[in-house]
Design goal:
This protein is mostly helical and about 210 residues long. Helices cover about 50% and strands about 5% of the residues. It has 6 helices and 4 strands, in the order H-H-H-H-H-E-E-E-E-H.
Length: about 210
């Protein structure tokens, strides 16, 4: 049975959904690969095909009660071949249930057993990305207007005047005098006093002369 890889939805699919689809696809491919190697070994034993290097290595590992290296390269599991096969089949069956729950959007509503996955660490990364994406959108709703694809000026009213497309000088009255286009010394009286500056300037010049 040929299994087509999951189609990409141009980034619109949630990370957890993408992970489950890939995990299901890779699980089926792993089962098919193991089945093909055992079928080849069976044919060699029955004398229908000739022994090759790959089948010899597989048979040697099984006779030594070791999981073949070619299987471990596809998914790293138990060293005992029987335990390996049980683990693969249990996960392959479990991921089908995960896929069904994903399609019904009920996966994250139930208690999840990560031992049912081939790659639980990858699932946690996908879940983290999905959670971060949702939280980011939640806290950005006051700054981003999805209808216009630009910053929502409603929430920037104290900093940006959308009517003129420039900084709203009304909210900068303590720093900028819009009538004269220069710093409003009235609101800087605690930092700058022109009279004191003149006095200090005179005193400084007198000190230089002496």
């Amino acid at each position: 049975m040929k299994v087509a890889p999951p189609m990409e939805n141009a980034g619109s699919e949630l990370p957890v959904v993408t992970f489950v689809r890939l995990e299901h696809y890779n699980g089926i491919r792993l089962v098919q690969s193991i089945h093909a190697s055992l079928a080849a070994l069976s044919k060699v034993i029955r004398g229908t095909i000739l022994l090759n290097k790959e089948t010899r290595t597989l048979a040697t590992s099984l006779l030594q009660h070791e999981t073949p290296t070619q299987w471990q390269k596809k998914w790293e599991g138990p060293d005992d071949p029987l335990q390996y096969l049980r683990s693969v089949m249990s996960r392959a069956l479990a991921i089908q249930k995960w896929l069904q729950k994903t399609e019904s959007e009920s996966l994250l509503q139930d208690t999840l057993d990560l031992s049912e996955l081939f790659h639980p660490d990858t699932f946690l990364n996908a879940l983290r990305q999905q959670s971060a994406r949702k939280l980011n959108l939640k806290y950005q709703k006051h700054f981003y207007d999805k209808h216009y694809g630009k910053l929502n000026l409603k929430y920037q009213k104290h900093f940006y005047d959308k009517r003129y497309g420039k900084l709203n000088l009304k909210y900068q009255k303590h720093f900028y005098d819009k009538h004269y286009g220069k710093l409003n010394l009235k609101y800087q009286k605690h930092f700058y006093n022109p009279e004191v500056s003149k006095t200090l300037g005179i005193q400084a010049s007198r000190q230089k002369e002496t």
